[in-house]
Amino acid sequence: MFEIIEKKVLVPSIVFMKVKAPEIAAAAHPGQFVMLRVDEIGERFPMSLAGWDKDEGTVDIIFYVLGTSTVKLATLKEGESILNMAGPLGKPTEVDSFGRVICACGCFGIGPTLPLVKALKEKGCEVITVVEARSREAVFWEDRLREASDEVHFVLGDGSGGGKCWTDDYIGHLLSRGVHIDRIFVHGCPFMMMKCAESSREFGVKTIVSLLPMMVDGTGMCGACRVEVGGETRFACVDGPDFDGHEVNWDGHVLRLRHLTTEESRSYSLWERENWHKLMDISPKADLLQEREERQVASKKRKVPCKIQLVF
Ligand SMILES: Cc1cc2nc3c(=O)[nH]c(=O)nc-3n(C[C@H](O)[C@H](O)[C@H](O)COP(=O)(O)OP(=O)(O)OC[C@H]3O[C@@H](n4cnc5c(N)ncnc54)[C@H](O)[C@@H]3O)c2cc1C
Ligand code: FES
User: Fold this and answer.
1) Secondary structure of residue 163 in the 3-state scheme
2) Cβ pair 81, 1 in contact under 8 A
3) What is the residue extent of each domain of the chain?
4) Ligand 2 atom closest to Cα of 222?
5) Is the CB of residue 33 below 6 angstroms from any atom belonging to ligand 2?
6) Is the pTM of this model over 0.90?
């Protein structure tokens, strides 16, 4: 059992947890993740490490409250425990004296970006952190990012940052002005990572993305997390989750992510029918439910980008 030492709703629908896990904390590196199971009937699902403290024996996770497993996790309180937490898993991010780097992040991706920025700074890199969010209200850890990075820039979808653009526009703009960048790291939703990789491709700047495929065991045995990179099949849990964004088959990746949407929705509805009262503890509940509804509508409208047959 892994005790929750601290829990905080950082911004609507994004929750921070500090969990007692001394063995994981002792071995953790930037870019790695843990596999969680909230209770005996729960599924195993991955969460990136957003921080760790070897002395106090704790690890931090930050998650977006999305469906059954993350809602169940969000309803746990300080002092309660997560049933299973296995890790650290995955290959650590390659951290070296690269020179000037961009660390781009959005949503819960701000979490794993912070330890990466710190590690890159320790290696002497100049770190430009770019945070993408739909508005200022969705940004958290601004102070921590500013303290760790050389520069922090915000690209806000509602234009409140001055100028309406996204991270890929920012990267493209910087590179086309001739600003020298040695490496780019991106933690965010698959669409953001794909767009960032597209924007840096013509300039040949290596762009490392942290992929988020469906994972079941997290140890290379089930094949659920397979992705096509450089024309080869790779397992994100053991070969990644970091990959060269210019080599990822994004259409295949996105398609695989979506193929259980109906079951996920049904699973959440069933859980909610029995446990709606627990949602009262996740503040603010109205935001959570409204966002979920909007996401479902948007997901139905979205077009699948290519016609690939899914073979499981
Ligand atoms: C290496 C890795 C690190 C991750 N780190 C974080 C993190 O730090 N914070 C965070 O909020 N999320 C993270 N995720 C995504 C997170 O695992 C999913 O959001 C979560 O499993 C959703 O489960 P659910 O039951 O709440 O939602 P569901 O409604 O069941 O699923 C919603 C969507 O989440 C994704 N998903 C569902 N189950 C899994 C699974 N077993 N494995 C991977 N993706 C799944 C799918 O895209 C699915 O369409 C990470 C994923 C990976 C692969
Ligand atoms: S999650 Fe099973 S092989 Fe990667």
Assistant:
1) coil
2) yes
3) 1-90+262-312, 100-256
4) 2
5) no
6) no
